[in-house]
Task: inverse folding
């Protein structure tokens, strides 16, 4: 199995397995326009939050004005034995959850 490895703003490695990439593209076809920007989302996010539904999941948010007429791109990372991308999608707003890190504006 092949995988991509990214480094986040904290210097942590995050893995995207090819099988997960294929599942994301199947479940969220609109992500084809921005799935190749994961390196930027992890290295330069606008905000990072812990999921309220799963304490092992962390959500990386980055607002992209050119994506779908202005959306938050969200990369969800599960932190279990290692950090791995579980899904990617676009949304109109940042979800609730504990703020781990936020860009100073």
Result:
């Amino acid at each position: 199995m092949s995988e991509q490895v990214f480094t986040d703003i904290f210097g942590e490695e995050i893995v995207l397995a090819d099988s997960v990439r294929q599942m994301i593209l199947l479940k969220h076809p609109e992500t084809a326009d921005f799935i190749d920007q994961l390196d930027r989302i992890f290295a330069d996010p606008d905000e990072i939050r812990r999921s309220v539904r799963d304490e092992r999941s962390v959500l990386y948010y980055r607002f992209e004005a050119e994506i779908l007429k202005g959306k938050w791109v969200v990369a969800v990372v599960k932190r279990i034995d290692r950090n791995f991308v579980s899904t990617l999608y676009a949304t109109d707003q940042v979800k609730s959850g504990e703020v781990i890190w936020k860009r100073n504006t």
